UniProtKB/TrEMBL annotation, chain B:
Residues in the signal sequence: none
KW Thylakoid (keyword) present: no
Pfam families, A to Z: COX1 (PF00115)
Transmembrane segments: 45-65, 85-110, 122-143, 170-196, 208-235, 268-286, 298-317, 329-350, 362-381, 401-421, 433-458, 478-500, 583-601
Heme recorded as keyword: yes
Domain Cytochrome oxidase subunit I profile: 29-538
Keywords attached to this entry: Electron transport, Heme, Iron, Membrane, Metal-binding, Respiratory chain, Transmembrane, Transmembrane helix, Transport
Protein known as: Cbb3-type cytochrome c oxidase subunit I
UniProtKB/TrEMBL annotation, chain C:
Ranges of residues in domain Heme-copper oxidase subunit III family profile: 1-203
Membrane topology: Multi-pass membrane protein
CDD domains, A to Z: Heme_Cu_Oxidase_III_like
Similarity comment text for this entry: Belongs to the cytochrome c oxidase subunit 3 family.
Pfam families reported for this sequence: COX3
Keywords: Cell membrane, Membrane, Transmembrane, Transmembrane helix
Transmembrane residue ranges: 26-51, 71-89, 101-121, 183-201
Cell location: Cell membrane
Name listed for the protein in its UniProt record: Cytochrome c oxidase subunit 3
Native source species: Mesorhizobium liriopis
Keyword hit for Transmembrane: yes
């Protein structure tokens, strides 16, 4: 792990600043938790070093040129281009230095690029991410099977395995970006882009759509959980389950009935029920998610209820419409969804 | 005949009086509408851009206010999206590019010792059409149909399916306006610089500013057609349902991005290269010596101009193009650091071997170097294709382009403004307030925009109207807002200084700074015909030689004439008649505006709208000669 | 430090001619500038056409008919032949022959009208609508782009003819005619790649 060592040894010029202002580390390229992001972090350090050095050199030269003592013998008036051998030599040296520095940077970029490409030979797990205005549809190919398991706005990845994410768009251009794991890749309608992720640390991370995609581009986040192999298998197994009808809970049953017969089911799917709409996120395991409406609210019973009651207040312009509901109905729906672990 | 050139002496001469009469505009409003004087046109061009700089700056402050704390409601999502779209579009299309052209329109004839541009009416047309573009965008803003998709509007988001209404059309047509205006100005600039240099000003003796304007104008000619093409394609997709950008019907989305950035990348150098010209002129004057490495400077400007056309893909590293191509564009983008580095070296070396004088214009040079080099280096970082995958579309890029745009173009512009202000107005600006505005703007700007690099590295994407408090971006955003406010305060002081100095400034005389180029031989402010005689040049710094400035007689006194000379050696070739004032450029611009605006609503506007345009152009170019006395249609008297 | 530069008048330019033609003439450079702009526009449109082509599996896509060769052939031939009177006109303008220039410009106007009519007929035989698919859009883009140039050039020639027949012709007007003739050559030359792309490329691929 030469990389890990070099990261520890190198003076982390960039680290102190964000730490000082107490920022979080779950959405930042400065805290790599995946192989791809680690490669890019090394490249970032290399670039910052070289560019920092050059900046210091230029400013040093500038300051010296301003404060330098001039000999009184210099002609008092203006001068037309006297040839100056010394400066010309320095210019040649400077040009040589620039070329050398650029060569280092080009080489570094090239190697990093190759590193990113090489990873693609590794073992892969198929995941499809579909960008929508303003949420993410996520589908896993069932292990060993051919069907797809659908969820939304939350991606689970097994540690130390390479996951190939297929990026497709349902409408406009978005950009898939989980900085702790890798750089971004645009999600372009009509193109099939893909991105490999090889996480090296478990934990929660956050991603965010990085290409302006309209009114609520700011609220198009994505939660990413890197699991151990066991956790991941358990999670997949649970996501695979369909919803069984609530038993012995009249309120929940009423909630489900409202969803199936009301408007919700036109847009949302709850596998195992009559709700089979495709316009919005799959809600089969909605309550198991970390947050609601692409990172707009942390998940909770209150948030669910608030969102369903007033989606346009939480996320103005969202494509989920305001649907007038009686307080009791609202309560029933939220109660049912709360149980959809 | 030898005499001292003073601001009042030649006015008394009979020759001067006759020239003034020949070149005079009609009095009053009619003169205002018909003038073809390059200085008047440029002055209103520049004033318009300053007003817009202020307006777009206020939008920026509004955005900064919204972002200074998480989850504020100063601006809603729609308001914020409109704000950055209007801010970016105004700053790039209506401020930066036009102001550089306007500076050229004002300065180039003076630096050439000429009385006018090659095509005076075309310059007037360019300005009026530019006003059409300004009105299109800002009147729409007043009517609440502000474009809201950023300064580049990628389909399919800008297609009719996701952007109904006319916001996107307005953006696209605003571009058509300003591009036609810019193209007209550029052709004018190229012809003037190549064919109207004074005797003796061979290409080798051409001041760097003229080289810079020449290269920037040529770049405009080769880059702008791309954006006109692409916005026309967008409009026709929206209006007559062509499918250029519809992937399901055999079009291609990325075609838009390729064409847009084929223009968009050179555009930023069209903004930067004239600034190179300003900086060089100021450095020379205030170091009291000509630039070190003039040839190297010229070559590097030309090299940037050429290389700029091979870099556009670095704005598209994340769209999923083949890696090998990306590596090529990385190398090409980094290559630009060499000419840029040589320029930076030459400026500092000039200061090094000269004797710097710390007047305000020179301060801006220092501010420029400190800031621009930082922006250039962050550009180098984003130019690395793999690294850009982490940096693109974050505040790191926002920091990069403000450092190069504000530091690399606006600072030199402010310097140029202070430097040529006495020439344009005959008065000096206050040095004390000059220092104050300099410190506030440069300090506030760096305070406000440096943190954005870090915000980008902490994962903050651009174009978000708000953010979650848990992300920890609040402190730095607060600092950014604070710094921006300080900078804008400095900007207000700058404008106030410029305004008050019109009355309070000390009289300047023709050459207050001891400049080296020909404009300093004209009186301040220059009369409408600029020079009574045609100067002859025998060095790159004609005003710095010990001998008197040599002048030639013979270019028209009682009729408007300019001197045309040969391309490379500037041998005088002939005397060209120069256009009289005319209302037709204005009327033609109005006709074109009606057609452009109409075409937002119906394609038939293109057909019917071209009739008045044809009429106006015919009247414009209709030669004034007597009726024929021979031939089949001769007058029969 | 407001220095006052000494000035001395050392000679006169009064003997210079007050007119020039060809590349010495200032307006020639303006004309060249606009040709560069429009040429770049053509080149980019062609590049866009090839780009869309390279991203399509079939060109034209299945279901689209090929454009007819009839009227387009007539147009191309006519355009090429128009260069003969056009170059003749250019020569007459350089020689400053007033009567010949009048006749030449009238002839070019008539030819322009004829070609415009043929071009309109040609549009009826593209056999694809602009909204059909990417192919259709690109074909119409190239055709419309070129046609606007034929139109504007026709308009200019016609106005110039009107003027020349009613006024005394001076040196500047001969230069103007030169510029018009050069511009026509530009319109002719740029038709050739477009003709190849619109009518032959789909047949070859
Ligand atoms: C005046 C305007 C201007 C200028 C001069 C530049 C200059 C440069 N720019 Fe910038 N750029 C913009 C305006 C400008 N840019 C804008 C507006 C955008 C954003 C568009 C948008 O998305 O909205 C942008 C975006 C942008 C991107 C895309 C980022 C992204 O979206 O992901 C890239 C990527 O390569 C880039 C690179 C560069 C480079 C390499 C230079 C180089 O020319 C810099 C060269 C200068 C130096 C390097 C400093 C001096 C040199 C030395 C001291 C020598 C030694 C140096 C080395 C050895 C490294 N720019
Ligand atoms: C030249 C171009 C230019 C200039 C000057 C500025 C100036 C400023 N810009 Fe902007 N900006 C852009 C070009 C420019 N910007 C572009 C292209 C975008 C991208 C838009 C998009 O995404 O589509 C952008 C986006 C952008 C954003 C990001 C929005 C987002 O992505 O969500 C922000 C946020 O803070 C911002 C802030 C500011 C601030 C605070 C200022 C300033 O206010 C800084 C301080 C002010 C000065 C240094 C000038 C002072 C001078 C005067 C007031 C007048 C005096 C002048 C004369 C007399 C000649 N700008
Ligand atoms: Cu999706 Cu931004
Ligand atoms: Cu660029």
């Amino acid at each position: 792990m030469r990389r890990m060592v070099s990261r520890a040894v190198w003076p982390a010029v960039l680290l102190p600043l964000p730490l000082l202002c107490g920022c979080s580390s779950t959405q930042s390229p400065l805290f790599p938790a995946g192989q791809q992001a680690a490669n890019l972090y090394d490249l970032l350090l290399l670039m910052s070093m070289v560019c920092g050095t050059i900046y210091v050199l230029v400013l040093g030269f500038l300051v010296l040129s301003l404060v330098r003592k001039r000999r009184a013998s210099v002609a008092p008036n203006t001068v037309v281009a006297p040839p100056d051998k010394g400066l010309r030599h320095v210019l040649v040296v400077w040009s040589g230095f620039i070329i050398a520095a650029l060569s280092v940077l080009v080489l570094g970029s090239f190697l990093a690029d190759r590193g990113l490409a090489r990873m693609q030979d590794a073992e892969v797990l198929d995941v499809r991410v579909n960008g929508h205005q303003w949420w993410w549809r996520i589908a896993y190919r069932e292990p060993g099977g051919t069907s797809w398991i659908e969820t939304a706005n939350e991606l689970h990845l097994p540690i130390d395995r390479t996951t190939r994410i297929q990026l497709v768009s349902g409408d406009v251009i978005h950009s898939f970006w989980v900085p702790n794991l890798a750089g971004k890749t645009d999600v372009v309608p009509g193109r099939n882009n893909s991105l490999d992720l090889t996480p090296r640390k478990t934990g929660w991370f956050r991603g965010q759509c990085a290409e302006y995609c309209g009114l609520q581009h700011a609220h198009m986040a994505l939660d990413v959980k890197v699991d151990t192999a066991g956790e991941f298998a358990a999670w997949i197994a649970r996501q695979k389950e369909t919803a069984h009808p609530p038993t012995g809970d009249a309120v929940a049953s009423r909630g489900l009935a409202l969803i199936e017969t009301g408007t919700c089911g036109l847009c949302h799917t709850i596998r195992g029920t009559a709700a089979q709409g495709r316009a919005g996120p799959d809600l089969t395991h909605i309550a198991s998610r970390h947050s609601l409406a692409a990172g707009s609210l942390p998940m909770s019973r209150g948030a669910l209820q608030g969102w369903i009651a007033q989606p346009q207040a939480v996320k103005p312009g969202t494509l989920m419409p305001f649907i007038p509901l009686e307080p009791a109905d609202l309560n029933a729906i939220a109660h049912y969804l709360e149980q959809r672990q | 005949m030898t005499f001292a050139l003073q601001s009042n002496e030649p006015k008394t001469s009979e020759r001067h009086a006759r020239l003034a009469q020949t070149w005079a505009d009609a009095p009053g409003i009619w003169g205002f509408l018909t003038t073809v004087d390059h200085k008047r046109i440029a002055a209103r061009y520049i004033l318009t851009t300053v007003v817009l700089l202020f307006a777009a700056g206020m939008l920026a402050l509004h955005m900064r206010l919204q972002l200074s704390f998480p989850e504020l409601k100063v601006l809603g999502p729609q308001g914020y999206n409109e704000a950055f779209s209007l801010h970016g579009s105004t700053m790039l299309f209506l401020v930066s590019v036009p102001v550089m052209e306007a500076m050229g329109i004002w300065l180039v004839p003076l630096m050439l010792g000429q009385r006018a541009l090659a095509f005076p009416r075309l310059a007037a047309f360019s300005f009026w059409l530019y006003v059409g573009g300004v009105m299109t965008l800002w009147v729409s803003h007043a009517l609440d149909i502000t474009p809201d998709l950023g300064w580049f509007e990628y389909p399919p988001l800008s297609g009719s399916a996701y952007s109904p209404g006319h916001r996107a059309d307005i953006w696209a047509q605003m571009i058509t306006f300003t591009e036609v205006a810019a193209l007209a100005a550029s052709v004018n600039m190229v012809a003037t610089i190549l064919k109207m240099r004074p005797p003796g000003m061979t290409l080798a003796r051409m001041p760097l500013f003229l080289w810079a304007m020449l290269v920037a104008s040529l770049m405009t000619i080769f880059a702008m057609p791309a954006v006109m093409l692409v916005t026309s394609m967008l409009i026709s997709d929206r209006l007559v349902s062509t499918v250029f950008f519809a992937p399901t019907q055999g079009g291609d989305i990325l075609l838009f991005q390729h064409l847009f950035w084929f223009f968009g990348h050179p555009e930023v150098y069209m903004i930067f290269i004239p600034a190179v010209g300003f900086i060089t002129a100021i450095v020379e004057t205030f170091s009291r010596r000509t630039i070190v490495g003039h040839t190297a400077m010229v070559l590097s400007v030309v090299a940037i101009g050429v290389l700029a056309f091979g870099l556009w893909v670095h704005h598209m590293f994340a769209v999923g193009l083949p890696k090998l191509g990306n590596s090529f564009f990385t190398a090409a983008s980094l290559a630009i650091a060499l000419p840029a580095g040589i320029q930076v070296f030459c400026w500092i070396a000039t200061i090094w071997s000269g004797r710097p004088q710390f007047y305000t214009p020179f301060l801006w040079v220092i501010g420029f170097i400190i800031t621009f080099v930082m922006g250039g280096l962050s550009g180098v970082m984003t130019a690395s294709a793999p690294l850009d995958l982490q940096l693109t579309d974050t505040y790191f890029v926002v920091a990069h382009f403000h450092y190069v745009l504000v530091g690399g173009a606006i600072f030199p512009l402010l310097g140029a403004f202070c430097y040529w202000y006495p020439k344009a107005t005959g008065r000096m600006m206050s040095e004390r307030w000059g220092w104050a505005s300099f410190l506030l703007i440069v300090g506030g700007f760096n305070l406000g925009f440096f943190p954005m690099h870090i915000l980008g590295l902490m994962g903050m994407p651009r174009r978000v109207y708000t953010y979650d408090p848990s992300l920890g971006w609040s402190t730095l955003n607060m600092v950014a807002t604070l710094g921006s406010a300080i900078a804008v305060l400095g900007g207000l002081i700058f404008v106030a200084n410029a305004f008050l100095s019109l009355w309070r400034g000390a009289p300047a005389g023709p050459d207050p700074w001891g400049g080296s180029t020909l404009e300093w031989a004209a009186s301040s402010p220059p009369p409408q015909h600029n020079f009574d005689y045609t100067p002859v040049v025998n060095s790159i710094a004609p005003l710095w030689s010990e001998d008197p400035l040599r002048m030639l007689d013979g270019v028209g006194v009682s009729r408007r004439e300019v001197l045309v000379s040969s391309l490379a050696e500037a041998h005088p070739e002939y005397r060209q008649k120069s256009a009289q004032p005319s209302i037709w450029p204005l009327l033609a611009a109005i006709a074109v505006s009606i057609m452009f605006i109409g075409s937002i609503f119906t394609p038939w506007a293109v057909v019917w709208g071209s009739l008045p345009i044809a009429g106006a152009l015919t009247a414009w170019f209709w030669p004034q000669r007597p009726r024929s006395k021979t031939g089949p249609l001769r007058v029969r008297v | 430090m407001a220095t006052q530069k000494e000035v001395s008048v050392v000679g006169s330019l009064a003997d210079l001619p007050d007119h020039a033609n060809g590349a010495r003439h200032l307006v020639w450079w303006g004309n060249l500038g606009f040709m560069l702009i429009e040429g770049t526009g053509f080149a980019l449109a062609i590049a866009a056409y090839l780009y869309v082509l390279s991203h399509s599996s079939a060109w034209p896509p299945a279901g689209d008919a090929l454009p007819d060769l009839g009227w387009s052939g007539v147009f191309t031939l006519g355009l090429l032949l128009s260069e003969i009177p056009n170059l003749w006109l250019l020569r007459q303008a350089r020689a400053k022959k007033e009567q010949a220039v009048r006749i030449g410009i009238l002839l070019m106007t008539v030819i322009g009208v004829g070609l415009t009519v043929i071009r309109l007929l040609e549009f009826g035989h593209l056999n694809v609508r602009w909204s059909a698919d990417g192919y259709g859009s690109m074909v119409w883009l190239l055709m419309v782009l070129h046609t606007t140039h034929v139109f504007t050039e026709l308009g200019e020639t016609a106005v110039q003819a009107l003027w020349l027949f009613t006024h005394e012709v001076g040196d500047n007007q001969f230069s103007d005619v030169e510029d018009t003739a050069n511009y026509w050559t530009f319109v002719v030359l740029f038709w050739l790649p477009i003709y190849g792309l619109v009518y032959w490329m789909p047949r070859l691929s």
